[in-house]
Amino acid sequence: MTPLRVVVCATAALGIVACGPAPIDPRRQIGAHPYLPPIHQYLLPPMRIANIVPWGNATPTVPKGLTIRALATELKNPRSLYVLPNGDILVVESGGPKGPVNRPKEFVMNWLEQQAHSRTTPGNRIVLLRDANGDGVPELRTVFLDYLNSPFGVVLVGNDLYVADTDAVMHYRYRTGQTRITDPGEKLCDLPGGPIDHHWTKSLTASPDGSKLYAGVGSNSNITENGIQAELDRASVWEIDRATGMHRLFATGLRNPNGLQFEPKTHVLWAVVNERDELGPDLVPDYLTSVKDGGFYGWPYSYYGRHLDPRVQPQRPDLVARAIVPDYALSSHVAPLGLVFYTGTNLPPKYRGGAFVGEHGSWDRTVFNGYKVVFVPFADGRPSGMAQDVVTGFLSGDDARGRPVALAIDSRGALLIADDAGNAVWRVTASGS
Amino acid sequence: MSSDNPRATATIGGHPIHPMLVPFPIACFVGTFITDCVYWKTANMLWADMSAWLLTAGLVASVFVAIAGLTDFLGDRRIRSLRPAWVHGVGNALVLILSIFNELVHTRDAYTSVVPTGLILSGIVVLILLVTGWNGWAMVYRHGVGVRREDDR
User: Fold this and answer.
1) A47-430 maps to which CATH number?
2) What ipTM score was computed for the predicted complex, to two decimals?
């Protein structure tokens, strides 16, 4: 028996374990109009944390017509990916900073979070993989950029490489083909970091014309329990001027926006967003949405438009009145952290133009949700139809062999998946290609 | 008057432990009610955090207080024959149970970790403590539980 199960069983024996609604079929919460059940607040919220076990010789599962194999293994917490124009693949090995303990609850939460993550110490660096012949076996694997501060987002504009550490956007000069950067770089602008740094992954992308950067800055709490003052400039997408480093809040009310990407046809910014916890197994659905300039998406005051969250006081009816309903629900607690539009030609035609979403997987739900990569079809720059499972098999009973995070498309059109629990990067190609 | 007072069993150097420890949970639980009230009025998370710490500290202290108190209760038949001892014991058992639930309520995030359920539970606990405290004092100051008589020396 794991210590975790001992705790769960002991609380169950006390008769105080979550008495609440049974989880619904997640398919009811996928798409533009998710079913939203009534709020349920618990004495002890339901929790189910996957034990992390090694992959061994196993791999994730893909549908017929696709092939998956590891591009790299034995990485140190790979969370994010970026493909350079010459085909080199950057793997961001990263982990969150340690925060202060403000409440007794946080001792328990920190311990639970440890259970759900790899035991490997995060590299806090970027590893470069070069697979010049595209056979899925890198000829070169080297440390590209070291000694970073919980990095996540990476974007290249011309010869300027930007890395979003948890507390700053750093700028480095890059030459095509370079395999190592030793230059300390310079800071383009600060981002909200510690001492409290609850949602620490700062996603990064550039506008199609390259003049602006967009950074996802997650909230500093589940639902303002660290105080509203800790949320200054957070739960938002920042627009950063590349020339001056000045920024403005492009959109707000996005609890934890990740996977920032411009949709290739319409050049509209999209993100996947992790919504709030502890309102029940099916609240609040995480979502995929276009991010509108000046848009407010609810957090913390409301969700899915004007559904008020009773945990937030004082309320802001003025903001709630203009809260935008997100475009496409992914169902609750799937924890989407990766988003990529498929612009390649290697995978079957049905994937072209649609979006892949990496779902890290749930912890506050008695039935696991997420732990897979799904495909959302798009037509005319909008989601059009039901999400389909593409890469599964990360779970094995109560165990997780891996947890998908960020996604990328490599120069040959293969789908790449960073797996931070399995310490691997997976590569999905069309069978026989 | 009997020739001897009811004796405390859990003692250090002849001093009863239970009355030495009992102020800690009482102060913590009364403090929880006060910080809950301030949070209710201000919605400043600082006060809700204080409540969570006070409540946790009160519960931890309660375990030791309960062990010492139960030892005394079981250790001398004369204590068990006192009505205030039963009111005190049963009331404080209720305080402990309500505070465990209150602790869980206080692990929620932000406003509903206090308002209204946490605040109500903290208030009820204080009311019960007034009764159990009164009866506890009656045991010592009226019935001389754990008090050594002059002529025992």
Assistant:
1) 2.120.10.30
2) 0.90
